[in-house]
Amino acid sequence: MLLSLYLVSTTELYQLLKIPDLIEHYCEHKALNSEMSLIAFLKTHYDHPVKDGDYGKDTKLPFIIHSSPLALVFTINPRFSFEIKDDSFRLSTSHKIPSCNENFCYKGFTSTVWEPPRHSQG
After folding, report:
1. Which of 37, 92, 115, 119 has the greatest number of CB atoms lying within 10 Å of its CB?
2. How many domains does the chain have?
3. What domain range includes position 10?
4. Global pTM value
């Protein structure tokens, strides 16, 4: 849900919310001219748009008018300061750990790891 809210507010995806307006406007044109197909309707509104009597409704159709999506900007106050105190960090000594030491491995484990489990009969 958060992802869809983010995408609708920051991309052109919000234009899909105008599809009911597109259907309603098409029905209005279809009532005026019963022979108008959907393709003809889309061509008159998207391919060669004209400013006619229903231009106000035409601008409410999806992808006719583009607006700038929401932009989030974060600023830091100029008086903000970040300090690291030297006494909070202590040097730690590192010990090298061998990459392959058989004393730490279970003997025979590497050869039986890919075998299926065995059931005891008893």
Report:
1. 37
2. 1
3. 2-58
4. 0.51
Q: Are 70 and 9 in contact (CB under 8 A)?
A: yes
pLDDT single digits (tens) 42-51:
998 998 888 8
d(CA 28, CA 42): 13
* Cα distance from N-terminal residue to C-terminal residue, the chain: 55
Q: Specify if 94 maps to a domain.
A: no
Give tens-digit pLDDT for 48-88: 888 888 888 898 999 888 777 666 677 777 777 777 766 65
Which residues, in sequence order, are CB contacts of 12 under 8 Å at separation 6+?
A: 63, 66, 69
Contact 64, 21 (CB under 8 A): no
- Tell me the HSE value of 122 on the side-chain side, using a 13 A CA sphere: 3
SS3 41: helix
Residue 108 lies in a domain: no
